[in-house]
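Before relying on records like the one below, remember that each one covers exactly one chain. Contacts with other chains, cofactors or solvent are not represented anywhere in the record.
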Amino acid sequence: MVSRWNYQWLLLYFIFRQHYVIANWTSSNVSDYQILGLFRDDVTTNSSIHCRAMFKAAILLSQQYNITIDGQYIGWESSQTNED
C-alpha cells in the first residue's frame, strides 16, 4: 500500500515537472521574419491538428536552439483554410 502511494506521488511529481518545463517554452512572435503555416480545415480527420502541432513544435525548437535570421528568432503565423 505504501509503495502504491509513493508511486502515485512520483507520477504526480513528473506530470507537474513536465508541465513546468513545457510552460517555459515561450513562443516569441516579435520578428521581422515570419513563417506562415496554412492548414486545411478537415473535420473528418485529425491530420490538420497534427500538422499544426508539428509546425509549432518546429518553430519552438528553432527558438530553443537559437536559430536566428539576422539575429532575430523566426516568428510564425498559423491559419486554417477551407477544403477548396
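The first helix runs from residue 2 to 23.
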